[in-house]
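Q: How would the structure tokens look for this protein?
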Amino acid sequence: MTIDLSVKWIFKVSLKKNIIANYVSQIYVALIGVLILPIYIKYMGAESYGLIGFFTMLQAWFAVLDLGLTPTIGRETARFRAGRMSAVEYRRLFRALSAIFLVIAVLGGGSLLIMAKAIVNQWLSFRLLAQGEVVFSVQIMAICVALRWMGGLYRGVINGNERLVWLSLFNMFVASLRFLAVFASMYFYGFTATVFFVHQLLVAAIEYLGLLVMTRHLLPSLGNGEDSVGWSIAPVKPLLKFSLSIAFTSSVWVLVTQSDKLVLSGILPLAEYGHFTLAVLVAGGIMVLSGPVSNALLPRMARLYAENKAIELIDLYRRSTRFIAMIIGSVSIVLAMCAKPLLIIWTGDLELASTASPILTLYAWGNGFLALAAFPYYLQYAKGNLKYHLVGSMITVGVLIPAMVFSASKFGGIGAGWAWLLVNALFFFIWVTYTHYRLEPGLQWRWLGLDCMRTLVPTALVVWGVVSVMSFSNMRWVALLQVSGVGVVALIVSFVSSANYQSLRANFKRG
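A: Here is the predicted structure in token form.
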């Protein structure tokens, strides 16, 4: 019993350490990525920033080629650490996946490279940038996205080994090179799109090499007398059902989260597209905050399920939900209700804030629902069966894509925002509830009512009341203090309303 308690305590400490490290990294990356954007627009111009937004979208669409292999290697790494496969079997699997990744990187990146001129001539709309500069920038994007995507395999291995502290520090280092050091390059060589993307190519190469070296360090060594690894895709075949399930859901995820950006990149001029991207990027900070928890949860939940610890699995699942509801709920609500003053504080541009704030409000609400709606996927991932996630994703895509294309074509960014909010809200309330009912009967109402709405509803009501009576100052630093105060209020109300507070209070009374 003492040993079991000790192991459980170590697991909890390790998980908390990984989540904290992930949050520090993600917050740092998000902050420098967001805070630096007004400087990009000021020195490079809105059209060049529109190219940066297009680059970000290309990276997301390139993830479709992953075929579910990155999450698969992460899960199989966790299973290897739980003693479910030998070192030889694991090394064979890694080598097979490495070969597949290399082939897809060459084919995908090469195709994008060849099509660069056609993309520029037939899709993008710009007035100030030279055509040659835009074509060259898209060609560099092709190489960058291939390199960064190839590194996804190595991230899967590192995540599966739960070396998230190292990965977090490395991500911070790479982000500093990507977002901050680029100004040194542009200071010496010019504030142009060409210089920006050449710098990004060098950073992508550094990132790839760093992940490769760490992965090689983590791979298990073979003992004397063990079979050689060899070259074969046979180790991948038993995992194809699970991998292709994830591949489909990953493709659906890209369709769900990037269709608006793809449609609008062909409709709006690059300058206007840059403003739209700016608003969506701020709202995207909500998903950034949920990333560290999912990265830490997936290998841990897969391991608990492999060890037949069902009670511990559900307990971890619900506690993590309450934590995300507190953090993500507070951020989503404050972003949605303080969108305009936040954009004025950030950019100092009243006209830009007036244009982008309605989009930010809608995307903030939608992303809040989306972050919580991802939880049933974590549970299905741990169990190795993504049936309900696949069906729900198919339904979502069937509704969202036509709605997004129609609304974005007719009403621009605001139309896309409404489609995004309504579809994600329906998915959260209807399909997530049904999925919980099928996976863990009785969990659906406790999860929705106690773990989510118990925190979100009081927080939304209190923040709405505060913002309704508050007059935000025209002085940016005063307005920042006011918005920060609203954020503190939201966090306090979320904590007091949540089951976490109720549990702490009960433990205090028993003590």
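The chain has 19 helices and no strands.

Residues 243-511 form one domain.

Upvote if useful.
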